[in-house]
Amino acid sequence: MNDEIQQRLVWIKLLESSGDAGLVCRKCGITRPTLRKWWRRYQELGKVGLISQSKRPHLSPNLKTTDKVEKLILELRSARNLGARRLQSELFRLHNISLGLATIHKVFKKHQVKPLQKFRRKVDYIRYERPLPGDRVQMDTCKIAPGLYQYTSIDDCTRYRVLRLYKRRTAANTLDFIDAVVEEMPFPIQRFQTDRGREFFAEKVQKKMMSLGIKFRPNKPASPHLNGKVERSQKTDKAEFYATVDIESDDLDSQLSEWQHYYNWNRPHSAHKGKTPMEKYFILSEETPFSDAVIESYKLKSERVQDANYRRDLEIARLKRSL
């Protein structure tokens, strides 16, 4: 017989001998409800009734994780190597399951999941970004599958994105994509930044930008780090979107549109401390210039059609300045 049962038995014997519940409570330092509870259990079951019983509920309708959910978390972690925050986002997007980060970490701890390897940034690392929406929009293309290319644009400040799929990387498709970007971005665009891809250097593409009052600012050759935000966002697309869909599906365009909306409106962004691109834009919306102000500041005389060959373009620019 353990100490707890022995102590409760003392209460019962004292109550039986004195018949005064108040005296027992004062002498033993317990409340009347406590005494009544153990007296009732003793009357029903004897000494067995004095054993402490589990307070765990028989049913838990509000239980956050089930075996099925835990299995899903572990499968996502194993197959796609996602961290807790990305897992939280994917569970909600794909399965409409809303869990807190602490809950997901508890599942990791329960199943002894090893933490992801983190790469340390340099001590002097400084995140570079433009101060206002539309100030600089990075644009790039990436190959998704044979005969399938994604055009991507991302605002340097808010990380708001516009995505499209095309069969080829051509000037005609670039023109169509520019129209989509100008139409869908909720703020005026001041400049486009691209790599040296020929689909961006076609004369009709550059003249299209001029007609829209948008500056064309291509990067120097072999400088993919200058377009780091769009490059990184395309890596996210491959890990979080294309890994979950059938690329040969007939409705891939509509699925990509849904992913774009989710990315802009619902997906937390680590660069914004958990805020979405649209939340970042709302914070800066009053400081964002209107289209009229952007067009007024655009100086057509300062712009020129640039050549995809960087050295030749420098020579052409040098000769024009000397004339």
How would you summarize the topology of this molecule?
Blueprint: H1 3-18, H2 21-28, H3 32-45, H4 67-80, H5 84-95, H6 101-110, E1 137-145, E2 148-155, E3 161-166, H7 171-184, E4 191-193, H8 198-201, H9 203-211, E5 215-216, H10 228-241, H11 252-265, H12 277-284, H13 291-297, H14 310-322
Parallel strand pairs: 1-4, 4-5
Antiparallel strand pairs: 1-2, 2-3
What is the highest CATH level, the class of the largest domain? Answer: Alpha Beta
SSE pattern, N- to C-terminal: HHHHHHEEEHEHHEHHHHH
Helix content, binned percent: 40-55%
Strands ordered across the widest β-sheet: 3-2-1-4-5
CA-CA gap between termini: 106 Å
How many β strands by DSSP?
5
**CATH-defined superfamily of the largest domain:** Ribonuclease H-like superfamily/Ribonuclease H
Give the C-alpha Rg: 32 Å
**Unreliable spans:** none
CATH architecture descriptor text of the largest domain: 2-Layer Sandwich
Provide the structure class: alpha/beta
Helical segment count: 14
CATH topology of the largest domain: Nucleotidyltransferase, domain 5
Our estimate of the beta-strand percent is 5-15%
**Overall tally of structural domains:** 3
- Globally, the shape reads elongated
Biggest sheet overview? 5 strands, mixed
Could you report the average pLDDT, rounded to the nearest whole number? 89
Molecular structure report:
- There is one protein chain.
- The chain is of the alpha/beta class.
- It has three domains: 3-50; 67-110; 137-318, Nucleotidyltransferase, domain 5 (2-Layer Sandwich).
- It is built from 14 helices and five strands.
- Strands 3-2-1-4-5 form a five-stranded mixed beta sheet, sandwiched between helices.
- A hairpin with a 2-residue loop joins strand 1 (137-145) and strand 2 (148-155).
- Helix 1 (3-18) runs antiparallel to helix 2.
- The relative contact order is 0.09.
